[in-house]
Amino acid sequence: MQLSTRITGLTGGGSDGWDVFLKARRMIAEGTPVTELTIGEHDIRTAAPILRDMHASAMDGHTGYAAVPGTDSLRRTVAARVEERTGVPTTLDNVLITPGGQAALFAAHMAACDPGDTALYIDPYYATYPGTLRGVGAVPQAILTRAEDAFQPRADALKAHAGEARSLLINSPNNPTGVVYSDGTLDMIATICRENDLWLISDEVYETQVWEGRHLSPRALPGMADRTFVVGSMSKSHAMTGSRCGWIVGPEEAIADLITLATHTTYGVPGFIQDAAGFALGQGWDFEAEIAEPFKRRRALATRVLAGQNTVGLVPSQGAMYLMLDIRGTGMTGEAFAYDLLDTHHIAVMPGESFGSSAAGHIRVAMTIEDSAFETALQTLCNHAEMRAAA
User: Fold this and answer.
1) How does residue 49 score in pLDDT terms, banded at 50, 70 and 90?
2) By C-alpha distance, which of 158, 164, 102 is closest to 135?
3) For the residues of 277-327, what is the DSSP string, one character each?
4) Does the N-terminal peptide bond of residue 33 adopt cis geometry, omega within 30 degrees of 0?
5) Listed residue (215, 297, 273, 275) closest to 44, CA to CA
6) 167 and 36 share one domain
7) pLDDT (tens digit, 9 = 90+) per residue, 267-282?
8) What angle do CA 6, 9, 13 make, to 5 degrees?
9) In the predicted model, is pLDDT for residue 11 greater than 90?
10) N or C: which end of the chain has fewer CB within 10 A?
């Protein structure tokens, strides 16, 4: 039997970008120690008080079908959080709870795009973005950025495709680059969306990890609340990656239709997980800053290490748990360097090419291991790059 072109074509006929990561995992399974600087997984686990609340909720019986849109309690909590942080009036009717941010991205594009519509996204991009767009039947169109612009999108590149598109997906703070979009960049994006009647889908899962500048949600800009879907998640802000609890914030009428979609697909998120998410959000800003602190500290550590050499360049690291490193001075592609580093030193990083053509000649490093081990791995990486550059 032949499978659908939708499912077989999710990667567009090429790699899904995870090849180096998968090789590293195979090496580990075979008994080879590998220092993993690949995925955005905290080196701490979900905090014990959150787990205790989750356990108590489950033991109290919240293990049956939960309300498909999310519990009213969690939806209100998310709405209050968004309103407090953006100033945009938000109620539970603007919120749908989803099984993680990835499900929210898929649902948002299902709402924004019909099959055959062009869906824009910024390159470099998180590796699942193009497949998500293909999965809803949209035609992915990358908007290229440039390293010399610190990967901030340019108006001319967006305008070249905006007239033919239905939606635009952005991510700030950005995975993989660590760049935070400036107020000017977001104003430009909002203007183009209004002028071209685009839905804006704003992936804000790293909103609590900002080291320079500020996080500005484009939903708060003039005329944008009715054309913006905001994707959020407990994964990065509260180290709850495995709990799979996220949300979409958008116009009430759109959320109502997305609830219908959830009824026919995910059928909601377990109630005990939602209760724990509500408890976690109730811990406030200080708790979220505590979760983010290791990445801020390691970013400063990395800046010091990289200042001691001239081969590896650091893209302005303003947010998120990643560094984007320019290794073009080695004369190697990001992919070739990543495989070489893995084979030679058993250090796994993600090639820039896994995140699009704009990041060619770069690698992404996740700041997700203990400080001293991270410093040692980064120093080894720099020494390896210097050796390859001199060869």
Assistant:
1) very high
2) 102
3) HHHHHTTHHHHHHHHHHHHHHHHHHHHHHHHT-SSSEE----BSSEEEEE-
4) no
5) 297
6) no
7) 999 999 999 999 999 9
8) 170
9) no
10) N
The mean predicted confidence, pLDDT, of the chain is: 96
Closest to 193 measured CA to CA, from 161, 232, 216 = 161
Q: Look up residue 367 and give its two tokens.
A: 């700041």
- What is the DSSP code (8-state) at residue 204? -
Average pLDDT, integer, range 83-109 = 97
Nearest to 262 by CA among 83, 114, 118, 65: 65
Same domain flag for 89 and 188 = yes
**Rounded to whole angstroms, how far apart are CA atoms 377 and 353?**
21
Domain containing residue 214: 48-283
Where does residue 236 rank: exposed (0-12), middle (13-18), buried (19+ CB within 10 A)? buried
93 and 222: one domain?
yes
HEC-encoded secondary structure of 314-327? ECCCCECCEEEEEC
- Alpha-carbon distance of 223 to 260, in angstroms, equals 26
Q: How many residues does the chain have?
A: 391
Tokens of 226: 């009715």
Residues 290 and 278 in one domain: no
Query: Please, what sign has the CA dihedral across residues 122, 210, 212, 39?
Result: negative
The answer on 62 and 12 residing in a single domain is no
